[in-house]
């Protein structure tokens, strides 16, 4: 079992764990993920007695229909998740205080944007019929604010999702950067680890925790676009090239501030899609595992 900084190891350990196909497990909580339909086929050619009544073929197929609720769907990471989900034909609802974003795009019109605060959410409106909840809730501020948005907000969301029988919960958390314990005890990391424990304890066989480090892409702020990819992409490539030389340094405290590979916002989004669509995926995902998961659903 792996432990993270000053935090106790969370069970199950970080890995791409597999679990039995859900068909062999209790089906009830998962029923809303599938609709079953039957088709009766028959044919009669010249000279052939029509036996359509007796020779009808029953075809029963399982069609998977996903409906994902993204908490913070208009944020930097949340919007990439909504966009990727829409492109995969997944129905998407977003909850955030500011609601629909000001920018436009064909995928934007396909998301159901709901304005609201997670602490006062109308869960009936949001969760009935959902197959997964993805939380991107998190951020910086005072100690109290960080504990609230990284920790409590997610604890509330996990509780609501469990109450409504949503089969999967996916949390965007954070890499620990090899920080020494005194830094990991800040409200930001304490909140994140509290949220992770909640996901993994309430969703032991389907909860997913992604732990990216720096996420790059085009971040939209007040009508402007900040091209974080101009830093993140080359940084990721350079670190990949010198990986063998930098490995020995990774045991140094806080070394991951420079050595943890950045990950593109699109890869984070695709790792989420992989988790939403693959029932056999659960547990904690490291940076490398996020990239691996993303590559599975890349076209
Ligand atoms: N960006 C990175 O490099 C990075 C790296 C590692 C981990 N992460 C983690 O990834 C997650 C997403 O990060 P991000 O950069 O996408 O953050 P972001 O752009 O600030 O997005 C946060 C989203 O949460 C919503 N939100 C905040 N408080 C809310 C509340 N009380 N009720 C409902 N919605 C609320 C925000 O919308 P409103 O303000 O309109 O409510 C926004 O949509 C965070 O948990 C962060 O810690 C980010």
Largest sheet: 7 strands, parallel
Provide mean pLDDT, rounded.
83
CATH architectural designation? 3-Layer(aba) Sandwich
Number of helices: 10
The SS-based structural class is alpha/beta
Percent of residues in helices: 25-40%
The CA-CA distance between the termini, in Å, is 34 Å
Any idea what the radius of gyration is? 22 Å
Shape assignment: globular
How many domains make up the coordinates? 1
Tell me the CATH superfamily.
NAD(P)-binding Rossmann-like Domain
Bound molecules: NADP nicotinamide-adenine-dinucleotide phosphate
Helix and strand pattern: EEEHEEHEHEHHEEEEHHHEHEH
Give the strand line-up of the largest sheet. 5-4-3-6-7-8-13
> What is CATH's topology name?
Rossmann fold
Number of strands: 13
Low-pLDDT residue spans: 1-54
Output the CATH class name: Alpha Beta
């Amino acid at each position: 079992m792996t432990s993270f900084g000053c935090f106790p190891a969370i069970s199950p350990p970080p890995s791409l764990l597999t679990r039995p196909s859900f068909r062999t497990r209790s089906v009830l909580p998962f029923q809303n993920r599938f609709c079953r339909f039957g088709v009766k086929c028959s044919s009669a050619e010249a000279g052939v007695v029509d036996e359509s009544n007796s020779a009808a073929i029953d075809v029963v197929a399982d069609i998977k229909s996903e409906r994902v609720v993204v908490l913070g769907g208009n944020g930097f990471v949340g919007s990439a998740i909504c966009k990727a989900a829409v492109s995969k034909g997944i129905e998407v609802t977003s909850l955030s205080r500011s609601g629909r974003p000001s920018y436009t795009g064909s995928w934007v019109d396909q998301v159901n944007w709901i304005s609201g605060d997670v602490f006062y959410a109308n869960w009936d409106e949001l969760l009935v019929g959902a197959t997964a909840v993805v939380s991107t809730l998190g951020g910086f501020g005072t100690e109290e604010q960080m504990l609230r948005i990284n920790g409590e907000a997610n604890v509330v969301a996990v509780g609501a999702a469990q109450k409504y029988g949503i089969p999967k919960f996916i949390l965007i958390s954070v890499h620990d950067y090899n920080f020494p314990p005194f830094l990991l005890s800040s409200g930001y990391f304490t909140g994140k680890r509290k949220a992770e424990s909640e996901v993994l304890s309430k969703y032991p066989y389907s909860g997913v925790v992604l732990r990216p480090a720096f996420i790059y892409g085009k971040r939209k702020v007040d009508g402007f676009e900040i091209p974080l990819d101009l830093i993140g992409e080359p940084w990721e490539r350079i670190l990949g090239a010198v990986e063998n030389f930098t490995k020995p340094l990774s045991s140094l405290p806080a070394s991951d501030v420079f050595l943890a590979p950045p990950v593109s916002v699109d890869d984070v989004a695709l790792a989420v899609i992989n988790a939403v669509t693959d029932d056999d995926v659960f547990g904690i995902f490291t940076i490398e595992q996020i990239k691996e998961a993303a590559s599975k659903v890349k076209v």
